[in-house]
Each structure stands twice: as structure tokens, then as C-alpha cells.
Design goal:
binds magnesium ion; alpha/beta; binds adenosine-5'-triphosphate; about 30% helix; 9 helices; five-stranded mixed sheet; D-Maltodextrin-Binding Protein, domain 2
Length: about 210
Amino acid sequence: MSSIVHIALSKGRILEESLPLLARAGIEPAEDPETSRKLVLDSRDPDVKLIIIRAADVPTYVQYGAADLGFAGKDVLMESDGDDLYELLDLKLAHCRMIVAEPDRLAARDDPRNWTRLRIATKYVKTTRQHFAAKGIQTDIIKLYGSMELAPLVGLSDRIVDLVHTGRTLAANGLVEVEHIADISARLVANRASLKMKHAAVRALVQRLAQAVQ
Ligand code: ATP
Ligand code: MG
């Protein structure tokens, strides 16, 4: 097995916030990952390469060992069922919350303590089902891939489960947060076999990242 370590990253929020952390850990992409069309980027460290993929695909690449390490949102990890995946570090970036929201008119007369069955639109099907099942609440879940805030406005669902940071998108669409599900941040995940086979190289990198988080 080669000693080159591949790190899976996703464009967008996580990458944006990860670049300063990676730089502190001595990992600098040879070209700008936001604008480059390359999917495998060299870094200035010849033993480290960066793989640029969709956020939701990071656990899959790491699980199958196509990437040794990955940066993934906790939201994405909660939805994945990767067994060969270790969550090693809270990277303490891309912070947000996973919440239940509903139109303010509904919220005015709604009491979450009386919920028995909910019609929810979300990208987070597994997490939503588990969250409500644990409380004995049935869910009819409508799977979406984005713009969840639209669903209650056009009658697709009564409520949504989504990520919020400032709450501005919710407010702009007349929605209010009515229940908190989880605090989210980006995590460092590792492939189980890579941790064993490339022990020294991967461990050294994890150590540098851990120090950079501090
Ligand atoms: P894609 O663009 O590939 O469809 P995505 O929309 O999930 O994926 P981003 O919007 O960049 O990609 O979000 C990536 C991650 O950023 C999320 O998985 C989450 O962990 C984190 N995040 C932080 N704040 C927010 C927020 N306010 N809304 C959505 N995601 C957020
Ligand atoms: Mg996006």
C-alpha cells in the first residue's frame, strides 16, 4: 500500500472553513480547490493528496478506503451507515443546528408535546425517522435534496427538518424553529484499514490536524 494519504473534502461551506485549518496543519493545495476542475489535487506535501467530492459522498469514499481521511458534516455522518468509518476529531468548523421548523401561523397554535404523527420534508430521512421514533411519534417523510424551506409554503409538508445557522433563511420564508435535534459541526473521519496499514502516515496527519484545531 502506498504511503500517500488521500483526504476527501467537499466544496462549499466545509472546504471554505477547512482551508485555514489545513494550512495550520501544513496541508496546502497546489491550486485553488474552489475553482479548479481537478478532482484530485496535489498538496505542497508530496505525501498528501486532496480529493474533492460532494459533501454527502465523503463517508462513502472513506468507508471504501478510496480516501484515507475525510472532512464530513455530522449531519452527513448521521445519515450514513458506514461501519468501517471512524470519527476521530471534532474539527469545530461549519457549525450549525439540525432543527424542526414550521410556518409561524402553525406554530402559533402548535404544541410539540401533542405531536403524534407528522408530515415532514427533509434531506435527513434516517435522522428524522430515528429522532421521532425515539419519542413515539410517527412520521410521513418526504425526501428532498435541497430548499426544504419551500415545502411548507406550497403544501408539500407541514414541517421540515433542516440545518440552520443564523435562521435568516427560515425567517425569510415565514418559518420558525420549534424543536432542536442536534448540534452539527464538521468531523474528521478515517478509514479503519488505513489507520492500520498506513499507521504512521495517517496518525501523523491526524496529530497535525488535532493540533491545528486547538
Ligand atoms: P451539495 O452542495 O453537494 O448539494 P450541500 O448543499 O450539503 O451539498 P454545503 O451547503 O456546502 O453542501 O454544506 C455542507 C455542510 O456544511 C453540511 O453538510 C453541514 O454539515 C454544513 N453546514 C454548516 N452550516 C450550514 C447551513 N446553514 N446550512 C447547510 N449546511 C450547513
Ligand atoms: Mg449546497
